[in-house]
TrEMBL record, chain A:
Homology family: Belongs to the Mediator complex subunit 18 family.
Lineage: Eukaryota, Metazoa, Spiralia, Gnathifera, Rotifera
Keyword Magnesium in record: no
This protein's encoding gene: MED18
Transcription found in the keyword field: yes
Annotated protein name in UniProt: Mediator of RNA polymerase II transcription subunit 18
A molecular-function term among this protein's GO annotations: transcription coregulator activity
Subunit: Component of the Mediator complex.
UniProtKB/TrEMBL annotation, chain B:
Coiled-coil ranges per UniProt: none
Family: Belongs to the Mediator complex subunit 20 family.
Name this polypeptide is given: Mediator of RNA polymerase II transcription subunit 20
GO biological process, one term: regulation of transcription by RNA polymerase II
Biological role: Component of the Mediator complex, a coactivator involved in the regulated transcription of nearly all RNA polymerase II-dependent genes. Mediator functions as a bridge to convey information from gene-specific regulatory proteins to the basal RNA polymerase II transcription machinery. Mediator is recruited to promoters by direct interactions with regulatory proteins and serves as a scaffold for the assembly of a functional preinitiation complex with RNA polymerase II and the general transcription factors.
Entry GO terms, CC: mediator complex
Location, primary (coarse class): nucleus
Record has Transcription as a keyword: yes
Location(s), subcellular: Nucleus
Subunit structure: Component of the Mediator complex.
Keywords: Activator, Nucleus, Transcription, Transcription regulation
Domain of life of the organism encoding this protein: Eukaryota
Species classification: Eukaryota, Metazoa, Spiralia, Gnathifera, Rotifera
Single GO term (MF): transcription coactivator activity
C-alpha cells in the first residue's frame, strides 16, 4: 500500500501518556544543577539547547463535568512566524503504585489562527506564562530547567512582551518528562534512577496536583 | 504549491454514480491521464454538547496525509490546519462530553490520476452505505497564483470533459467563487490547500443534506 494511504487509514487515535517528575531549585543554585545535567545528559560536547516559550491556556467549561484546558505554546525566538503547538494534558492519574505522575497527553502542531478557533469553540482565555531556560535530553527523557514568569499586564497589541515579564518566584522549575504509549514500569524506574543521581541538588518528585 | 477546483459532477443521465464515475474515468484515461493510486477525503463533524460553541468539521485528504483541516461552522475564523493527531484531540473532547458525532461521516473515495502537471481526483461520495454523488478535483500543481491556475484548469476541463465555461462556472462552489471575487481588488492571490478542503466541505455538506435517491 502506498505510504500516504497507509497514514490516512491507520488508526490515529493512539493514546499517549506523559510520565512526569517535578521539582524546583533556587536561582543561585541553578547553575550547579545545569552543570550536573550537562555532565550526565547526552549533550555533553554540544551546546545546551535553550528555549523561550510563551504558553496560553484556554479552558472550556462543560456543564456537569470537569473543565478541559488546552495549551497553546510557541517559541518566542521563532517570531514573527512561529509554529503553534496545541497540547491537551489531563490531570495525573491517581495510581498509588506508580512512582511517577502519569497523565494522558495529546498534542499537535497547528496554524496561527488557533486562538480565535478555540474561542469559536467556546474556550475562554484562562492564563498565560513564559518559560525560559535550558533543555537536556537523556535517551528518551527530557529535562527542562526553566524560569517561569508572568505578564505584568495583559496587552495583546504589544508585540514585545519581553519588557513586561515578571518572574513568579526566585526559583527555577525543573521537570523531567517522557512520552510513552502505555503503562510501562521500566519507564518509571529509569526516571527514578536518573532523578536519584541529581540528589542532593534537587529532589524530583511525583507531585499530587489535587493536594 | 497548488491551485485546485473541486466540483460535484452531475450523474443524472446515468444509472448510478458508480457508472458515471466509470464514464468520466474512461474519458480522462482516453485523454492521456494515468491512474496512480486511490484517493480519499473524509469529513467528520463534531456537534457541541455545550452552549456557545459551534459544529466543528474535520477533513482529511490523502494528498495531505500528515494534516487535518478543521473548520468551525458559521464563523469568521479561517480554516485551521493541524497535524493529523488533531482528530485524536477532538475525540478526546468527545470522550469528555464536550462534543459528539451526531452527523454521519462522509467519505469520498476514488482514483487519483496524473496528466503532466495536472492532478485529478475522481471519486464517489458515500454516507455509510449510501452513495450520494460524484466528486472531481482538478489541481494544477506547479503554481499558487489562483487566477492563472483557475484558467488552466478551466481549459483542462473544457478539453478533457467537454464542459463549457458556463457549466464550469455553474458547478464551482460558493467558496471558490467568493475567493475568486475577493481577489479582484487584491494583488496577492496565493492559493492554499485549505481552499481546496473548503470546496470539499461545501460539496460534502450539500450532499449530506440532499435526500437519498
Amino acid at each position: 500500500m502506498d505510504p500516504a494511504q497507509l497514514l490516512i487509514t491507520q488508526n490515529r487515535a493512539f493514546p499517549s501518556l506523559e510520565y512526569v517528575l517535578q521539582g524546583s531549585i533556587q536561582d543561585d543554585s541553578a547553575h550547579l544543577l545545569k552543570a550536573r545535567l550537562q555532565g550526565l545528559c547526552d549533550n555533553i560536547t554540544g551546546e545546551v539547547e535553550q528555549f523561550d516559550d510563551h504558553e496560553i491556556v484556554h479552558t472550556l467549561r462543560i456543564p456537569g463535568a470537569s473543565n478541559v484546558s488546552l495549551r497553546v505554546r510557541y517559541a518566542l525566538d521563532d517570531m514573527p512566524n512561529p509554529i503553534y503547538h496545541l497540547r491537551y494534558v489531563a490531570s495525573a492519574e491517581l495510581d498509588k503504585s506508580q512512582s511517577v505522575s502519569v497523565r494522558q497527553f495529546h498534542d499537535c502542531c497547528v496554524t496561527k489562527n488557533i486562538q480565535s478557533f478555540l474561542q469559536e469553540l467556546g474556550f475562554m482565555y484562562d492564563h498565560e506564562f513564559f518559560a525560559k531556560g535550558d533543555i537536556f535530553r537523556k535517551g528518551r527523557m527530557k529535562i527542562t530547567v526553566a524560569k517561569i514568569s508572568s505578564l505584568l499586564e495583559r496587552n495583546r497589541s504589544d508585540m514585545n512582551p519581553m519588557q513586561i515579564r515578571r518572574p513568579l518566584t526566585a526559583s527555577c522549575f525543573v521537570e523531567m518528562s517522557l512520552i510513552g504509549s502505555m503503562h510501562d514500569d521500566k519507564v518509571a524506574d529509569e526516571m527514578k534512577t536518573f532523578a536519584e543521581q541529581l540528589k542532593p541538588l534537587i529532589s524530583l518528585e511525583k507531585i499530587d496536583q489535587k493536594r | 504549491m497548488v491551485v485546485a477546483i473541486v466540483i460535484s459532477l452531475p450523474s443524472g443521465s446515468f444509472k448510478s454514480p458508480a457508472e458515471a464515475a466509470e464514464f468520466y474515468l474512461d474519458k480522462l484515461e482516453k485523454g492521456g491521464a494515468k491512474k496512480t493510486r486511490p484517493f480519499q477525503v473524509d469529513l467528520v463533524s463534531y456537534t457541541p454538547l455545550i452552549p456557545n460553541s459551534k459544529v466543528v468539521h474535520v477533513l482529511s485528504h490523502s494528498e495531505y496525509p500528515a494534516s487535518s483541516f478543521a473548520y468551525a461552522e458559521q464563523s469568521n475564523c479561517q480554516m485551521l490546519v493541524a497535524d493529523n493527531t488533531f482528530i485524536a484531540l477532538m475525540n478526546k473532547l468527545k470522550t469528555l462530553r464536550a462534543f459528539e458525532i451526531r452527523l454521519q461521516k462522509m467519505e469520498a473515495r476514488g482514483t487519483r490520476l496524473e496528466y503532466q502537471d495536472f492532478l485529478i481526483n475522481l471519486g464517489t461520495v458515500n454516507q455509510s452505505q449510501t452513495t450520494k454523488g460524484l466528486i472531481l478535483e482538478v489541481a494544477y500543481v506547479p503554481m499558487d497564483e489562483t487566477r492563472d491556475g483557475y484558467c488552466l484548469i478551466q481549459e483542462f476541463l473544457q478539453s478533457f470533459l467537454n464542459m463549457t465555461k458556463q457549466t464550469i462556472q455553474r458547478l464551482i462552489t460558493d467558496q471558490l467563487s467568493n475567493w475568486l471575487r475577493s481577489l479582484k481588488d487584491k494583488k496577492d492571490s496565493e492559493y492554499t490547500p485549505s481552499i481546496t478542503l473548503l470546496q470539499y466541505l461545501d460539496i460534502l455538506l450539500a450532499m449530506r443534506n440532499k435526500p437519498n435517491e
